[in-house]
Description:
By secondary structure, the chain is of the alpha+beta class. The protein is built from 9 helices and 73 strands. The longest helix is centred in the C-terminal third of the chain and has 72 residues, at about 735-810.
Amino acid sequence: xxxxRSLHRAAALLLLMAVLLPARAAAGPPADYTHxxxxxxxxxxVDVLKFAQGPDGWLWITTATGLYRYDGVRFERSDSVxxxxxxxTNVLGLLAARDGALWVGYRLGGVTVLRPDGARTYMEAxxxxxxxxxxxxEGPDGTVWVAARDGVARLRPGHERFExxxxxxxxxxxxxxxxxxxxxxxxxxxxxxxxxxRRPGAVRFTQAWxxxxxxxxxxxxxDTIWASxxxxxxxxxxxxxxxxxxxxxxxxxGMHFDRAGQMWLLQPDAVERVGAPPAQRLTLQNGxxxxxxxxxxxxxxxxxxIGTSAGLDRLRPNRLRALATPRHFDHPGMIAGPDGTVWVxxxxxxxxxxxxxxxxxxxxRSGFAAAHRAPDGTYWIxxxxxxxxxxxxxxxxxIASPEGLRGLDPQALLQADDGALxxxxxxxxxxxxxGGRWTxxxxxxxxxxxxxxxxxxxxxxxxxxxxxxNQVSLVGRDGRVRRLxxxxxxxxxxVLALTPDGATMWAGGEAGxxxxxxxxxxxxxxxxxxxxxxxSGIVRLAGGDxxxxxxxxxxxxxxxxxxxxxxDPAQPVAFERFGALDGLRGHxxxxxxxxxxxxxxxGQLWFATGSAIALLDPARIPRNPLPPPVLIRELTAAxxxxxxxxxAVTLAQGADTLQIGFTALSLAMPERVRLRYRLEGVxxxxxxxVGRREAFYTNLAPGTYRFHVIAANEDxxxxxxxxxxxxxxxxxxxxxxxxVVLLALGGAALxxxxxxxxxxxxxxxxxxxxxxxxxERLAERSRIARSLHxxxxxxxxxxxxxxxxxxxxxxxxTRERERLDLALDRADRLLVEGRDQIMDLRASAPPPDLAExxxxxxAGLAEPGAHAFxxxxxxxxxxxxxxxxxxxxxxxxxxxxxxxxxxxxxxxVLEVDYGSxxxxxxxxxxxRGLDAAVAQAGGRPGHxxxxxxxxxxxxxxxxxxxxxxxxxxxxxxxxLPAALAYGIEEHGRAAQPASWxxxxxxxxxxxxxxxxxx
Length: 1014
């Protein structure tokens, strides 16, 4: 026998010994519940006295040291509710009313009601009985009843005071422990001396039997009212005197009934479900949080809560129901039986036919390593000793394993269409049984050397075998062997499951799950990277749902989702997972027996793990119909905590970081609650909160934001309304639009100042360059004038003088002399005009100021003449554009020269006006004026002075006007708009005036500064 088999035999002996121990010692928690315990190490309250749950979903817990609340994730001590502080931390009574109010009773007297809009504490002065408040209950009409040490009182809706209820209504005066409203409307009160009841419509209470002190009551599913005395003995209560004195039927510290009508008893060291097998008992030894379980509560999602002296416990109903058996299995194998049962066996026991409720009928004294059901109704079951064949008529036959393989487990069995049996033995290889004779590999060639793990029959009768090492072999009706591997898309590693699905075949393996279709394997993959690994059981239901049992749990893939995947295998398939939270203990077998999942005749799914079998009815999966309430718990901004008293909150100026805490109040399976949130204006879509219940934001700008959070329970039922909080962040001054405007204006001013400085610098450089160019031009003109004067004029003058000497030798009065004198006169005039032109060329470079330049030029003209010169400057002096200045000076010089040399004027006036709208230059003289023909023609033939002045004026955009007549003098005016006249620098600011008002300069023929004023 192999070492593996020896170990299993040893384990079987231990299990058999365990079965022989007393049932109470083998007790365990209820198998159809998942148990969780909390104590002080987990931050949970201890010495729990009462539970309550209101419409908002919070689980409230009272202890002698304070009030606590639980949201499914953490326990919080609550010294205040809705912002209102409790009167005392020593709390006892508790009620979560239907209207959302929370009522808290104190051990030393008094009751506080807490609502979102305020709180109120009632004392003896308000009609409340004195002493410890043991119980608070709400009547069908909304009346609040209080049972206290010193009596019972009620507070009717809309009333301000409690109304004591005592002898006037048939109740004792002291020691009132509990108030119960039965389903038929009867009101019960447990008190010192007995239990009292009042039918609907009655005024007075009547005492029930037995007539002894009764402290705790419970109503059973059959409407029986149970009550316990001060020794923990429970009696049935009678409204009429019974024929025999009532006797106690149970002894417990507490009796309760869940919504299904199941009785639960609290014992000093255990919680027991009455009517369940012995294993259905939660004790200190198997995980109860502490001794003295003293309160019981079932929340709105069906979970049961137990309060103990050292903590609290939760029993959550499992979706998966454990098959009730007197012992644990040792790697069970399963096959659907012909009579509506499921045949189950393992390594430690024998094969039995099981029903869903755990009833077992012995079937075969054999272990269970592999099994197969043939289409003709034949069953095959094998272990390491032999194979067992059951025919359709129920007869069993034992068949020996192939020679030399006794002691080796069969791994897989399959009966082919011709009746032959294919069998794979672990460590022995593949064999075919036909006609009572075993043949290795069935006499065929081409099989992989790796062990055949599973077998299945295809729709066309082909025998499929899944092997280790990522191989599948097919045996056709023609006896030929074909192999499939990675070349055909197979990437499963060890193949653990083969399930036909019409013309296709599902395959599961250690590395995933795939569908064989059209000659290739298509890998099944789900969202979040799910690969469905370790699948050793596959079932496709008639409705189209696909169920898988693998290494990571149980998967359900809906028919619609599977159909979408089959149309587009590249897309992930939607799925639902069931695991330990749902009651699955262990994982699917990765070796044998296989398969680990079977469909029972009654439609339920059976899932085998290492030591247990779980059942699930796919048509009646327990669901949570309650979407989780969502709450925004807290908000912290820039290190400051803000109370959340309403739907909106305003933060401090400049707050740019947020930390928002939220929760979803689902207590059944908080591990599977999904939370999504978004901050409108920041998040573009929903953010998934994975493993946390907080959101963080940084670098927020001032403005109004809306934070929205939603949640879904374990079944994907969303609370789309969720919770909403409007958040306003006021701006600081530097974040306001006014600051932005001021900043923009300041920036614009700086830019303008920089621009102005740059323009001033550029203008200055331009002026300097223009001056340099002007000096260069004047120097060049002076050089040319010197050259002309020193060469041409002197040579011409010498030539004229030579001609004069020769003319004087001719006799006066002769015709030749007269002609030569006439020619010499013309030459003298030409010499004078040439000298004048040279004088113009030698004119000195003008100073920066136009008026000064013209003054110096006019002074030069006045020196040899006999005329008077007067100059007037008005307006704010400023530089002209370089080209304008040059052309204006040229026009003025030409006009002054004409007036000084040709007009025979006695008085010349020059006026310069720096106007804000236009620049004006005027030249007037009192000379002989122009002939009418010259004035009309615009100049003398062969002379270009007047023509040049007009051309210069036109070049700079100026207008030139001239008025003259014989003997009337000449007046010339040049006008240029200010925008064209003045320099690039700021008008009126760049050139500083010498003085304001009018300036006048006078000149005479001999002394410029002593001339007459005009």
